[in-house]
Amino acid sequence: MSFQDWESIFEEKTEDLYGYGDSWSFEFDDTIEPDNPAQNWYQYIRGAFARFTCSKCKRTWPSKRVLVVFDFQLQERAKTGTVKARRFRQNCKRCQGAKMEEPQFELDNIEVLLEKLVGRIRMRCYREDLGENNRGFRPVGISEGPHESAHCEACLRGICRKSE
Ligand SMILES: [Zn+2]
Ligand SMILES: [Zn+2]
Questions:
Q1: Annotated domain spans of the chain
Q2: Are 77 and 138 in contact, with CB atoms under 8 Å apart?
Q3: Res. 33: pLDDT tops 70
Q4: Within 10 Å of residue 143's Cβ, how many Cβ atoms?
Q5: Buried-most residue among 96, 113, 132, 160 (CB within 10 A)?
Q6: Given this model, what pLDDT does residue 135 score?
Q7: CA of 89 to the centre of ligand 2 (A)
Q8: How far is the C-alpha of 1 from the C-alpha of 5, rounded, in Å?
Q9: Each residue of 89-145: pLDDT tens digit?
Q10: Nearest CA among 17, 46, 68, 42 for reference residue 133
């Protein structure tokens, strides 16, 4: 999915925050590290479902363990909030020297991810007390083999985890 999809869903999900008078922006950033947010930034990590396509052999495969990391910060004086997202990649197990491919998320799954993220923003940046929202992912009817740790960027860094 393209950046535009993420950005427009993000705008939709953050509309409710307009009441606070802050404007929030969204960007991808492949330099952020899990469990190590920059000072004064909050972090939210989730495993999600996505598909990959090998750019060499065109094989596609699903994975329920695609790590997505969000760093977020509200600059109260500037009235601006920033979210940075990193989606961990996987590579093809059939091709020699296959490059790491970007995950492709379905719109529904992007929606759920960003909804959960905005929930975190409300709790952390606005001190809202939210009840548990248990809307889950929908990896229904997807059969996949064992997680291919040798081909998962997050596993290679020892930071992979299952969806919640
Ligand atoms: Zn391949
Ligand atoms: Zn992994």
A1: 3-156
A2: no
A3: yes
A4: 6
A5: 113
A6: 44
A7: 9
A8: 7
A9: 999 999 999 999 999 999 999 999 999 999 999 999 999 887 655 444 444 445 567
A10: 46
Which amino acid is it at 128?
E
Ligand 2 centroid distance, CA of 128 (Å): 33
pLDDT > 90 in the chain, percent: 73
- Helices vs. strands in the chain: H and E counts, helices first: 3, 4
Q: Which ligand is nearest to the CA of 94?
A: 1
Spatial neighbors of 77 by CB under 8 A, at least 6 apart, are none
Which of the ligands is closest to the CA of residue 91? 1
Q: pTM of the prediction? A: 0.86
- Structure tokens of 21? 């008078």
Whole-number pLDDT of residue 163: 54
Q: Which ligand is nearest to the CA of 55?
A: 1
Pairing of strands 60-75, 42-53: antiparallel
Residues surrounding ion ligand 2 at CB below 5 Å: 152, 154-155, 160
Q: What is the distance in A from the centroid of ligand 1 to the CA of 151? A: 11
Length of the chain: 164
